[in-house]
Design a protein that fits this description.
By secondary structure, the chain is α/β, with parallel strands linked by helices. The chain contains six helices and eight strands.
Length: 200
């Protein structure tokens, strides 16, 4: 009797790499009270003038009132009027590695300054597996970079998020900035920090 060859289950990493992201929503989230949608203002995105290859938020036209290039005190992105409480730092993989090695003292100061902001996010436009793998462009130890990220998160409360593509990074940052502004508007206008009738 011929022995049956077992079917191997693909690695979850393979599933992730084969995934096809869906189109972004018309609006990230809606705020309601008593089943009625609130008319919330659209924020203006701020992009630091030193950002050489900035995210393009043009496809999120319905999310924002506009975009401005401005010298920010910290980070690469923020929201107009919320520059003192919201900061987003963006790093490509090569830039991240250099920041944690060659430019480590300077970058650590930037992260420590970010930690003082109520809303902060470090976005890396590379998969987490790439951060943890050997770099073709640098002899740096991936473990050193990974542990530095964890240290900034655990020690200073600076969260990081990895996105597989530049385009996915754009959507994540756009969504984050939109929601930071939305929650701020809800709270300062007496609606509380939740979206729909205590749901979130």
């Amino acid at each position: 009797m011929k022995r049956r060859t077992p079917t191997l289950i693909k690695s979850p990493i393979a599933w992730q790499m084969a995934a096809t992201p869906v189109e972004h929503p018309a609006i990230p989230v809606l705020a309601e009270r008593g089943g009625t949608q609130l008319r919330t203002p659209r924020p203006t995105v701020l992009v630091d003038t030193r950002e050489q290859h900035p995210f393009d938020f043009a496809r999120f036209e319905g999310w924002f009132a506009g975009m401005e290039r401005r010298a920010l005190g910290s980070g690469d992105y923020s929201i107009s009027g919320l520059e003192d409480i919201c900061v987003v730092e963006r790093k490509e993989l090569a830039d991240l590695v250099q920041s944690f090695t060659v430019e480590r003292p300077t970058f650590m100061k930037r992260l420590k300054r970010m930690s003082t902001y109520p809303h902060k996010l470090l976005v890396i436009t590379a998969a987490l597996s790439e951060v943890k793998s050997r770099y073709p462009f640098s002899p740096s130890n991936p473990n050193r970079v990974m542990q530095a990220l964890i240290a900034a998160f655990a020690g200073w409360g600076v969260p990081f998020l990895c996105t597989e593509t530049h385009e996915m990074g754009e959507e994540i940052v756009a969504s984050y900035l939109y929601q930071v502004h939305l929650y701020y508007w809800l709270e300062t206008n007496g609606y509380g920090r939740y979206l729909a009738d205590e749901d979130l």
